[in-house]
Sequence to fold (235 residues):
Amino acid sequence: MPLLANTHGACNSESGSEERHALDHNQLIRAAAKSVLCPIGCTQKGRSRTWLDDRGWWVGVIEFQPSSWSNGSYLNVGACWLWTENVYLSFDHGDRIEEFHSFESPEQFNGVANSLAERAKTEILRLRSRFPTLHETATCLTGMKSPNIWHWFHAGIAAGLAGDVVTAKNNLAAIASETSEYQWVVDLQSKAAHLGSLSNDVGMFRSTIAKQICHTRTLLRLPQVDIESLLDAER
Fold:
C-alpha cells in the first residue's frame, strides 16, 4: 500500500509539472507576442495562440501552432483573403515558416518565444509591403508560378476590385478549365463564372465582393468596417 501511495503521489507531481510547463510556455508566447506584435497593430484572437493583422479586405494570420505531443510551438504566417465567406481562417498566401521548437525550460523558451514573435513580425511586415493595394495584390497573384484553382480565383477577384476587367475575366475563366469530381471545385467554378459575368460592371462587381467581405468578417467575428469606402481608397 505505501508503494502504491507513493507512486500515485509521483504521478500527481509529474502531471502537475507538465501542467505548469504548458502554462509557462503559453504565457511566454503570449508575453512575447504582446511585446512584439501589439506595437505594429496586431491583436490576439480571443485567448488563443493566433494573432491577427487586420487589413480590412484581408487579414494577416499568425499562428503559434501547438503540438499534440509536446510543449512548444511551430510558427505559421500568411494572408487570408476575406472574400471567401469561410467560417475559419486560412493561409491563402503563406504557411509554415518555422518548424517545431520544443519547450525545455522557462529560461530557454523565453528566448525561443521572442525569436518566433520577431520572425512573425518580419513576415507580417513583408506581407503588408507585398499587398499594400488591390492593384499590387492582383499583379502579385496573377504572376504566381504554377498557379492553381485558388490562385486564379483570388487573382481574379483582386483584379476585378482594382478595375482590371481583362485580368479578372482571364483568371476567373481559367477556373472552368479544371476537371474534377469534387463538389467544392464545381461550386467554385460556378461562383467564378458568376463573378466573371459581373466583372464588366466594376461597380456591381465591387459591391458584390464588399458584401462577401462583410459577411466573412461577421463569420470570423471581426469588427465591421466600411468596406466599400476602404476598397475605393485602396484601388
Observations:
- Residues 2-37 form the longest helix (36 residues).
- Residues 13 and 19 are 10 Å apart (CA to CA).
- The chain has a mean pLDDT of 89.
- The helical segments are 2-37, 106-130, 134-142, 149-161, 165-174, 183-198, 202-219, 227-234.
